[in-house]
Amino acid sequence: MGNEIINNEKEYGSIKISNDVVSIIAGVASTQVEGVAGMSGGITGGITDMLGMKNLSKGVKVELGEREAAIDVFIIAEYGSNITEIGKKVQESVKNSIETMTGLQATEVNVHIQGVNTPREGKKEEEQRVK
Asked: In which family does this protein belong, per the annotation (predicted)?
């Protein structure tokens, strides 16, 4: 993840943006969309969460070019939400945030719905009825 790209070369020098920075921007933009329960980060993301550290780039994969970025986000949707609409809104949110904050062109924003977050209260009530 330590890859950096040259975003701009001017008379004063160059500006480099790390993959991690783009990942964090995409992660925050994704979780701000209504209907997104969280990010799906796999084993390492789960370990980070258990240790109490918040990994803002969890569930995001970034590939950077000279002036463009391709982003994959892996999300968990809220139960009862329109998954297609959530996907479109995440794409728009990530694209706008990346382009506004970094000046890179987001050529691809691929949204992977990895699961659905179901309400926990219903499960507790169901367990109590069974006992």
From this structure: Belongs to the asp23 family.
Rounded to whole angstroms, the Cα distance separating 60 from 58 reads: 6
Give the sign of the dihedral formed by CA 96, CA 99, CA 102, CA 108: positive
pLDDT of residue 123: 55
Q: What are phi and psi of 125, to 5 degrees?
A: -65, -40
Sole residue written with tokens 């506004």: 100
Summarize pLDDT for 1-13 with one digit per residue, the tens.
456 655 555 678 8
Please measure the distance between the N-terminal and C-terminal CA atoms of the chain and give it in whole angstroms: 50
Q: Where does 4-130 sit in CATH, by number?
A: 3.30.70.1350
- d(CA 99, CA 79) in angstroms, rounded, equals 30
pLDDT reported for residue 51:
40
What are the boundaries of each domain within the chain?
A: 4-130
β 60-64/68-78 pair status: antiparallel
> What average pLDDT score do residues 20-25 get?
94
> Would you tell me how many other CB atoms lie within 10 Å of the CB of residue 111?
22
